[in-house]
Amino acid sequence: GLTILTFFLTKRLNSNLTATEAWQRMNWPRLCILLIFLDSYLFIFASGILVFGINLQKNTTACAAAIYLCVSFYTSSKVLIYAFLTEKVWIVWETSSGRSRMRSPVYLVCMVTVALYGAIVTIMVIGGIAELRQSDGLCVIGLKPTASIPLLSYDLYINVLLTALFLWPLLRSEHSTARLRRVATRTLMASAVALTTSTINMTVLTVLHGRELGWICLASCGTDVVFNAAALFWVTSGTSQ
């Protein structure tokens, strides 16, 4: 995971930030991509230290740290991904109309949806589980049903919303340029991969009643963020982002 994320991050740094002028021209989508890669890298790195360095087993403090690590880095990565996809939705829908972000109903709907994720994060923090299993002392982390079910519902909702918003311009292709159709197609595929992996991850956690062994939970979330990063790296390859 670290090797893949290092490759993504260095490629974007080399291609976008080789001069001072590049920093000055930095737009929000480019910055968002860099932050997603950096956030994912730090999550995998910190998870590795907890699992292989400090050791989660029979360590109450490390076990508690694992759930907070997972919630903080995982959710911040998701917020950045949703923000990036919202920007792409605005580009696909409003380039031809020329409407600004604050005058675009589609953009505002997406922003309100992303803002609602703040409530989900709060519920996740309150509903976090971190305990040592009495039988063998293994670290078990996860989310209570009061947190995992709202998170799963939100993932399903935003998955359907963003898929529909990228799919609709393709179905009405006569009203868009070839470039916008290409952007919509690539972003639709990337968002489908990113959002589906998240939904599967949360579904598995919910089916397991919100409890997984610490290292398994961190590994599944780590796999999720790596898949997300790979999808976004692909969608921004060969484009101005």
From TrEMBL:
Q: Which residues span the membrane?
A: 31-54, 66-85, 106-129, 149-171, 183-207, 213-235
Does the entry feature the keyword Membrane, yes or no? yes
> Do the record's keywords include Acetylation?
no
Tell me the domain of life: Eukaryota
Please provide the record's keywords in A-Z order.
Membrane, Transmembrane, Transmembrane helix
| Name used for this protein in its record | Uncharacterized protein
Specify the species.
Roridomyces roridus
What does the organism's lineage look like at the top?
Eukaryota, Fungi, Dikarya, Basidiomycota, Agaricomycotina
